[in-house]
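Q: I have two molecules that I believe assemble together. Could you output structure tokens for the complex as a whole instead of separate predictions?
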Amino acid sequence: MKQFRNMALPYIVWMAAIIVVPMLLIILYAFTVKGNDVATIRFSLENFARFFSDTVFMSVLKRSLYIAIITTIICILLGYPIAYAIANRSEKSKLFWILLITLPTWINMLVRTYAWMGILQDEGVINYFLGFLGIGPITMIHTTFAVVLGMVYNFIPFMILQIYTALTKMDRSYLEAASDLGANAVQSFLRVTLPLSIPGVISGITLVFLPAVSSFFIPKLLGGGQYVLIGNVIETEFLTSGDWNFGSAISLAMAVIIMVSMYITKKVDTDPAANRKGE
Amino acid sequence: MEKKKIRLFSKLLLGLTAIFFYAPILYIILFSFNSSRSLTKFEGFSLRWYEKMFSDSTMMEAVAYTVIIAVLATIISTIVGTLTAIGLSKSRKLMRGIVEQVNNLPIMNPEIVTGIGLLMFFSALGVKKGFLTLLLAHVMFCIPYVILSVTPKLRSLDPNLADAALDLGATPMQALWKVIVPQIRPGIISGALIAFTMSFDDFVISYFVTGNGVNNISILVYTMSKRVNPSINALSTLVIIIITVTLFIVNIIPILKEKKGRKTT
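A: Yes, here they are, computed for all two components at once.
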């Protein structure tokens, strides 16, 4: 069977080149200051110092985290009941609804975000209907509301699918046992279903928070040119100002913040479980 | 009574979910047939934006680039990804672990980080941004998905089968092609499908690695959306149709084949 082993070799070489080297380049650029060639490269923490000491950049970072956290919370609050409702349907109906949720994720995110631009306009369809009720027009486009809406719209399917998977994997006999032992519906949900579905929520958080922090076209399209998130700063540094060192430092800082928050989320998830086993 | 209420509530919730997901998509399709420039008032049916789209050379070029890149990236990444997955399944555990970890990087990393990394990589190599860099980038982020979707199929594969084929005198190529590949075909097909749609829909990474007038549909929508331009609706509708048809074909063909198979047996 060793004949086949070599088939992985070309990809390993390719992978080292095109996946690993770019990551190393980001680190290299982040810790160096612009020089004209290899000889004039200077290692320094200047880029990070500049980023973390600038109040404008710090407010952008705060806003990005704030938007991502709000988006994630909304995705959990809306996504959980939706996933729960689907998980409790008949087999055929489950398949139908999961397909319905999955299908839009296959369609271009940019196109789907663009669609909201028309809907949210002051003369758009939402304000048209609000007009019938005698409300508005309410300005929605180019607001935080529009940005969060765009993110929830794009990322909530990931949350729903993760929670749904956790719910359907759950052993139904636990619920029977709970009700045999005298638990009512609310109790068995809170003490059986919810704890068992937490891993789904956790992986859902990962899949929503990560793209939400780094997104730059949703704020651009729905927040307008003035609405700057951390992704937009990186875009500008690389494609407009051309300061790759500073841009790399910001990207690296963002990647580290994301990794730390993922780590904390996972920790929060595994700790209670470990404690419960110890009881 | 309580149960009825809950069921009603869940039906209502799912109904609203469907509206939330599909209203924007239907909105864009509807307004692609609008006779006026307005994105908010439908003033009559017309095909003028489609005419405009098909006569606009930048739009048609972007469609062509998107399709060509997606097809090439799908073919390359499906072949390389499948061979790699098979190779890895026979490799030492340590090697497999390392490759799987590195392989996860493009999937786990924010797209923008992958994008700027590739941008600097290509520039360090002195490769001009354009078609080649776009294709290489797409192959780069597609292969991990193919490997991820083929690997589980290989795990459930009986390792003795390939050995048996070799013992019976098959060349390794024959064993690969006639024994292993047919059994992991569903994984290969779903890997190819993911690769195609990932490539077809990609915006962020493409945006950073392309240049010299080589644009895909997403980049064009992004740059054009700053001004009102209803041809974007027509272009978006085209994208929606292409993806829906692809998904439909890939999902329907196996069902039809199965039915045919049942009839003949």
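A: One point stands out. The mean pLDDT of chain A is 87.
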